[in-house]
Amino acid sequence: MTAPVFVVERMPTGPEFVLDGPEGRHAVSVRRLEPGEDVVLTDGLGHWAEGVVRSAEGKDRLTVTGIGTVHEEPEPAPRITVVQALPKGDRGELAVETMTETGVDAIVPWQAARCITQWKGDRGAKSLAKWRSTAREAGKQSRRVRFPEVAGAMTTKQVAALLAGADFAGVLHEDRDHDSTPLATAELPATGSVVLVVGPEGGVSPQELTAFAEAGARPYRLGRSVLRTSTAGTAATALLLGRTGRWG
């Protein structure tokens, strides 16, 4: 089993480090780590280092020793971003969690026209904080050292601008009558950026499809079945990771 991952604000500069606060509490009181066990420390931005537990004190203080070289994981290529229309209830956090575990690089919440959920004022700020916290925790759980970025919620106009700057831009669209291409056969770049839009349960509106088409994003489909908005991004990410060789 791989060593558990803990997040630090700054990477250690010496051979010994004290992990305290919420991460220390999780290590000592939840994971109940003991001397001699291996751990990985990361800033979530691609930097990481291995260490060994020397001691655990109280409920939230873990001393890690034997810390060697701080490594840096290379930037992924191509970089995969999923624009996720806001799902209902807690299915947004589910989407973020599974996409993070799968390996997505960035997630963009999208206030689509047919979204029932609305991110406004304090509710919007709290929802965004939940998505970011979910990405962080899922990144740790899946032993990642480069966590996905979760952007602030975007409008359709902002999403179109993001698509226009991508090396590959697509919209997952479930309409059987629409002229969509299987994502499994799309020509993908070896480097650069891939941006894929996942619409809401009610589908992407004709006006949104037009705006995205003008930005260079064609419609694509995953398969014969229609996935929920909270699972489509994960399935698409897995397909893209396999096709681009990042899962090779």
TrEMBL record:
Compartmental location: Cytoplasm
Residue ranges occupied by any Ribosomal RNA small subunit methyltransferase E PUA-like domain in the UniProt entry: 19-64
Superkingdom of origin organism: Bacteria
UniProt KW keywords: Cytoplasm, Methyltransferase, rRNA processing, S-adenosyl-L-methionine, Transferase
GO MF assignments: rRNA (uridine-N3-)-methyltransferase activity
Reactions listed under catalytic activity: uridine(1498) in 16S rRNA + S-adenosyl-L-methionine = N(3)-methyluridine(1498) in 16S rRNA + S-adenosyl-L-homocysteine + H(+)
Keyword Transferase assigned: yes
Broad EC category: transferase
Example GO BP: rRNA base methylation
UniProt function note: Specifically methylates the N3 position of the uracil ring of uridine 1498 (m3U1498) in 16S rRNA. Acts on the fully assembled 30S ribosomal subunit.
Family the UniProt entry places it in: Belongs to the RNA methyltransferase RsmE family.
Protein name from the UniProt record: Ribosomal RNA small subunit methyltransferase E
Species for this entry: Streptomyces cavourensis
